[in-house]
């Protein structure tokens, strides 16, 4: 290296991560026991209501990140340069979406869905 170049470094990295913000069982519909309910003035009985619809199309969300950079130090580290290029791509983005569900269904959980890709 020339005497006036102290450091020249090329950096490259790639990484993949997932998403854990959607419930483990969001792909499956579920029900829960609610207050007692009476039909036609009969003795009230237990009522089971749906919690969520489930979505069998859910897949694992993947985010891939790319980074390339170059560091240059000149004249006994008196002049320093750094350049970075960063890219982040997400595929099968998981999203808890609120849906307009009739109130008679009494569903409380949002609907988990996926978006094809996001950059």
What's the Cα radius of gyration?
27 Å
Mean pLDDT: 81
Shape: rod-shaped
Alpha plus pi helix count: 0
The main pleated sheet reads as: 4 strands, antiparallel
Strand content: over 45%
Q: How far apart are the first and last residues' alpha carbons, in Å?
A: 39 Å
Relative helix content: under 10%
List the uncertain runs: none
Description:
This protein has a 4-stranded antiparallel β-sheet, with no helix packed on it. The mean pLDDT is 81. Strand 2 (30-37) and strand 3 form a beta hairpin. It has strands at 5-17, 30-37, 45-52, 62-74, 79-97, 111-118. By secondary structure, the protein is an all-beta fold. It is rod-shaped, with a radius of gyration of 27 Å. It contains no helices and 6 strands.
Question: How is the secondary structure organized here?
Answer:
Elements: E1 5-17, E2 30-37, E3 45-52, E4 62-74, E5 79-97, E6 111-118
Antiparallel strand pairs: 1-4, 2-3, 4-5, 5-6
Key attributes of the depicted protein:
rod-shaped, 119 residues, 4-stranded antiparallel β-sheet, two-stranded antiparallel sheet, mainly beta
């Amino acid at each position: 290296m020339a005497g006036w170049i102290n450091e020249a470094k090329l950096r490259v990295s790639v990484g993949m991560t997932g998403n854990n913000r959607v419930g483990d069982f969001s792909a499956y519909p579920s029900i829960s026991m609610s207050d007692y309910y009476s039909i036609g003035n009969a003795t009230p009985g237990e009522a089971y209501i749906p919690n969520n619809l489930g979505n069998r199309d859910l897949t694992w969300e993947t985010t891939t990140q790319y980074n390339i950079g170059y560091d240059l130090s000149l004249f006994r580290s008196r002049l320093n340069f750094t350049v970075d290029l960063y890219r982040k791509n997400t595929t099968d983005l998981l999203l808890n979406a609120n849906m307009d569900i009739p109130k008679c269904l009494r569903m409380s959980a949002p609907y988990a869905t996926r978006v094809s890709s996001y950059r």
